[in-house]
Amino acid sequence: MALDLFNRRSKEDRERHGDRLPPGQKLTEGWPVLHYGGIPSIDLTSWKFSAVGQVEEEAHFTWDEFMALPQTTLRNDIHCVTHWSKFDNEWTGVTIGELMKRVTPLASAKHVMVHSYGGYTTNIPLGELLGDDVLFAHTHNGQPLTPDHGYPLRLVVPKLYFWKSAKWVRGLVFMDDEKPGFWEMYGYHIHGDPWTEERYS
């Protein structure tokens, strides 16, 4: 009965919202909290962000240096692999484009592993990471991120399922080949496109 109700609501949501809602998704007004393990305790005075691996020169930022980069506000929809979607999220932070003005990947770099405080990782093709809707966000809907949603900084990649938008992000490793991150090693899809329901491998 519960599954029938979910399927009916999902169909109603899709009919109402057309191309904005991927198949199998249901809209939520809230923002569910989902992650593996505990929430890391992060001290901004020792926080570091690094871009390393297949790059011409490694780049490292303190919190103050990262926050001094040009800031942008973007609005987008997010879609979780657990079937919820949330529309019209407003994020403020540093776009991937701004970061890449300071980081030059080698020609061999095709993939990126995102690393987070707490040990979480997730993989993203470099071409997808470089989208103009991708940013490192510190603010959501006008409020600083809370610890359970990724304070002080999370990646936002709206074109992929939301597990790819790593919380507590601390850096990128540019790679010449594709390797699975944390959830990908436990059966989540290596890519994670909501529109083709790339939920699990």
Key structural traits:
201 residues; six-stranded mixed beta sheet; disordered N terminus
Radius of gyration: 17 Å
What is the CATH C-level name?
A: Alpha Beta
Strand content: 25-35%
Globular, elongated, flat, extended or rod-shaped: what is the shape? globular
Average of per-residue pLDDT values: 93
Largest sheet: 6 strands, mixed
CATH architecture: Alpha-Beta Complex
Task: Return the string of H and E elements.
Answer: HEEEHEEHEEHEEEEH
Would you identify the CATH H-level superfamily?
A: Oxidoreductase, molybdopterin-binding domain
The total of beta strands comes to 11
| Helix content, binned percent | 10-25%
**In DSSP terms, counting alpha (H) and pi (I) runs of 4 or more, how many helices?**
5
Show unreliable segments: 1-6
Number of domains: 1
